[in-house]
Amino acid sequence: MAKTLRRLGLLGAAAVAGMALFAGTGVISVTPTAGPKPIVGGEVADIKQTPWLGYYSDTNGKFTGCGVSLVTPTKAITAAHCVRASSVTFGRQKGLTGSGGTTVKIAKSWKHPKYSAPGSGTGYDFAVLTLETPVTGYAPVTVVEKSDTGLYPEGTPATVYGWGHQKSGGTNSDDLRKVTVPIISDANCAKSYTSGLHPATEVCAGLAEGGKDSCQNDSGGPLIVGGKLIGVVSWGKGCAGANAPGVYGELISALDDIKAQL
Fold first, then answer.
1. Which of 29, 69, 125, 213 is catalytic?
2. Catalytic: which of 57, 69, 81, 112?
3. In the annotation, is 219 catalytic?
4. Could you tell me the pTM of the whole model?
5. Which of 8, 170, 178, 187 counts the most CB atoms within 10 A of its CB?
6. Catalytic site residue 125?
7. Dist CA 73 CA 60 (whole Å)
8. pLDDT in tens, the chain (262 residues)
């Protein structure tokens, strides 16, 4: 069963040359290979509605893979498997051909100390970026609180955003895209992933019949419920396949560690 690192960016994939590439929403292969993931079965989203949403970029603001969420003027949350020395860009609709927005260098990256490769069964695919200069003019997203357990029950509609592939093994989207998928219980997700899942720090979302999912290069991007950031795109088995939901880092599970970095 080939597992795909869903949301690792283009540069990130190159940085993990020894790992197996993951092509789709959700799962990392037993021989992990980092790979990017895109939004499948969704629609074009308006960056003005999510001003806190950004992505890893070159110094000109061009998308290089992996999403990030601005949570304070100088801090952003993403996936640990996305971390690399680079810049991030906020406020740009088109990641490949667009202009405008704000591009800022990353001063420091923190990975959760318990993190290991996505799909390895150890979870904790969380990272916090410290930006060199404050990002102004873009309201940060609200991060889930410990009392927000009611945002995770099975069937809860969750929206994921990204500039990744629109099908497994495809190409990145120029426009920002989004898709809404239901949360899946840990017990039901474990029926799809008999190994590699870490229910204590991961949450799954998707349709049993497939067709809607995050995908390659969507890694690190946000999973949103009720206007709050509750997860980050992590890994999965391909993209949008039947009985192969996307796997997301469950922020509420490591909230104390994450907030200590904010």
1. 125
2. 81
3. yes
4. 0.87
5. 8
6. yes
7. 20
8. 345 555 343 333 333 322 322 223 332 222 233 333 348 999 999 999 999 999 999 999 999 999 999 999 999 999 999 998 899 999 999 999 999 999 999 999 999 999 999 999 999 999 999 999 999 999 999 999 999 999 999 999 999 999 998 877 778 899 999 999 999 999 999 999 999 999 999 999 999 999 999 999 999 999 999 999 999 999 999 999 999 999 999 999 999 999 999 9
